[in-house]
Amino acid sequence: MPGSSLWLIPPKDPFNRAMQTQITSMVPMRFAPNKPPTFIPHITLTSHINPALHEHDAQAWLDSLELNIEALLAANETREKESTDSASAEKRALEAGNLDPPAPQAPTAPSDPEKAALSEDASISATTPAPPSAPSDPTSPPTSGPAPSQASQATTSPALPIEINLHELEAGDPFFRKLALNATLPSPGLSALATVLRAQGCYGNDIETAKSWEKSEYRPHLSLLYADVPKDEARRKIPGVLQDLVRAKAILKPSRDGTVSKGGSIVLVPTDREIGQWKPIASRPLPEVVWKLNMLL
Q1: Pick from 39-53, 136-150, 206-220, 229-243: least confident
Q2: How many CB atoms lie within 10 A of CB 4?
Q3: Exposed, middle or buried: residue 258 (CB in 10 Å: 0-12, 13-18, 19+)?
Q4: What's the pLDDT at 79?
Q5: What is d(CA 20, CA 40) in angstroms, rounded to the nearest whole number?
Q6: Model-level pTM?
Q7: Which range in 77-81, 105-109, 260-264 is most confidently predicted, on average pLDDT?
Q8: pLDDT one-digit tens code per residue, 151-201
Q9: d(CA 122, CA 94)
């Protein structure tokens, strides 16, 4: 899979362990002698993130991300204003005949790549201008503004509660969702979180492009099997897998609405590597998550 991904994972609790058991042993056993790869239980929030965004400090990059749309829009407006003010200050200086105006508060990056590199070395605190419109290829490096301040990082949180109701076991054609528990839609909190992270990870902070992606492409699910087997074969295994899940749910003793876990983390995973190396390289706690298990038999 090209690029890195952001996953939402449950806390290390009985629900997490139950799903890991399904992924590691129970489901693969039904597809013997195939030996499908294993992975940690997760909901993908977004993928196709250019690794260049986080290669210097994965944890710092993850911590810098806004987690709600309004906060990102406000940050975009601030960057745009700083860029406009910088351009106006330079124009006034040139009109006054000062060909060597003082450095503005938020200088724009030089167009020449070599000068840009020198500029970055000379002033690590320089602020980049507002990002351009979204690139057509989400794996291309997006141009984004600077990370929020530490105070912003400490206070930003999703604007809506995040509820993940896993309600349907489905067989699919794609390798990465051969068997998956689909999350109920609409799920406003989950969709908003995926949208704001997609905007920052793939579209240079462009919220509108991310909203279009969410509406047309985002289908949250918790995969139980990665495999190169025909979809019909996977579909025939659904009744047995469902029985295993029902037994696991009974052991978890969910509440009346199906809640089996609360909390979790957003993790950054280098999914451009081999599947066996799909391990989190950065993590950010997200307590505002409710996990429910309500499979339809």
Answers
A1: 136-150
A2: 27
A3: middle
A4: 85
A5: 6
A6: 0.77
A7: 260-264
A8: 344 347 898 999 999 999 999 999 999 999 999 999 999 999 999 999 999
A9: 23
Q: What is the mean pLDDT of residues 211-240?
A: 97
Instruction: Name the token pair of 205.
Output: 């902070």
At residue 255, the 3 state secondary structure works out as coil
> Is the separation of the CB atoms in 234 and 227 below 8 Å?
yes
How far is 171 from 256, CA to CA, in rounded Å? 27
Q: Which residues pair with 222 in a beta bridge?
A: 43, 181
Please give the DSSP secondary-structure letter assigned to residue 237: T
The pLDDT value recorded for residue 259 is: 97
Which residues have C-beta within 8 Å of that of residue 12, sequence separation ≥ 6? none
Concatenating the DSSP letter of every residue in 279-296 gives --SEEEE---EEEEE---
Quote the CA–CA distance of 146 and 198 in Å, as a whole number: 17
Q: Does domain 4-81+154-293 have CATH number 3.90.1140?
A: yes
CA-to-CA distance for 13 and 241, rounded, in angstroms? Answer: 21
Q: CA-CA distances (angstroms) from residue 187 to 68, 211, 256?
A: 15, 14, 19
- Nearest to 206, CA basis, from 138, 157, 268, 148: 138
Residue type for 36, please?
P
Give the residue among 43, 41, 53 at the shortest CA–CA distance from 199. 53
117 torsion bin: left (phi>0), alpha (psi -120 to 50), beta (else): alpha
Sheet containing 259-262: which strands, arranged edge to edge?
A: 259-262, 289-293, 162-171, 179-183, 221-225, 43-49, 4-9, 265-269, 282-285
